[in-house]
Sequence to fold (379 residues):
Amino acid sequence: MKLVAFKDKNPDEDRLALFPPAVKKLSSLGVEVFIPQDYGLDLEISDSIFQEAGAKTYADEIEVSRFSDFSVRVNAPSLDEIKILEKGSLHASFMDPFSHPKVLDDFNSYSISSISFEMIPRTTLAQKMDFLSSQANLAGYVAVIKAAESLNKIFPMMMTAAGTVTPAKVFIIGAGVAGLQAIATAKRLGAKVEAFDTRPVVEEQVQSLGAKFVKLDLGDTGQTDGGYAKELTKEQMALQQEMMAKCCEQSDVVITTAQLFGRPAPRIVTSEMIQRMKPGSVIIDLAAETGGNVEGVVAGEENTINGVSVIGAKNFPGEVPHVASQLFGNNVLNFIESYFDKDTNNFNLNLEDEIIKGCLMTHEGKTVNEMYLNITGQK
Fold:
């Protein structure tokens, strides 16, 4: 099998889809790995390091695309980049199909089978290839670091000859992968941390990290089979917002992480709630790229509202591209290795496999993902 890695053309994206250790393991399986020249330049990883791991470098994207069986990158390609892929080949990346449905039409137009990494089912069996979780971990970490940089206070308590400095209060909304990492990071920095999630099942995880779990009786709540929080009713949202308003009012930092799979992020922090917060406080919205949890947030920007800094996350994992690429590369390796047939030296696109069915978006010129078709009302 010939596996070709492409680098994103976006100058703000330094993450790589393959990392030298992953390349070495893939090469040992019999996979021929091709990377563009200067693939790791932004991360100060020379071509020679990739070559020592078994990769071959290329200069001409069009030429290498003609014989590729499987292409991989971090984010979805443009139409011009799809055009050069070999008909019938397989492509995999973060495709964000719900926000960018046209990419599926483009793949279908050129009969390219495509896999969307974020659609991989979040099951125990697929845990080692859970791209969303590996990158969300980093997003949670970066959120706290950015908050600490923006806050006009320090996180830890300090006892000095000049007096005692009280710890910063951090309130984290949503205790998924990103939220739990944010809790752990804020605690390591010495902050007093509280967290809320609509799923009571995560209370123990929150407490195990040293944070206080804020309880609120919302009635029937829970999580989907994929581990995401279920959407709340209007009445539940009203109760939640009043409780959160009180928590935000008392906090120095608020980090929101709530997202709904396949739908815009729920609006949690309103402008009225921000008005009640202390000037100098900081809000980090990790859901800014999918609509935002915070009213008035803009992805990739920092705005000041009533003296409160509101920061909209945009590719936070890309802020630590070396580690993000390492984890991404491991996910790619685990995914390919799980379906690599050594007898045929090729990727086994088993259409009956639950994981493949969950993440395969297009095949033989048609959009085939049942979840996507159901959510978008096309089935």
Q: What stands out?
A: Residues 135-314 form a domain with the Rossmann fold fold (CATH 3.40.50.720). The two ends are 34 Å apart (CA to CA).
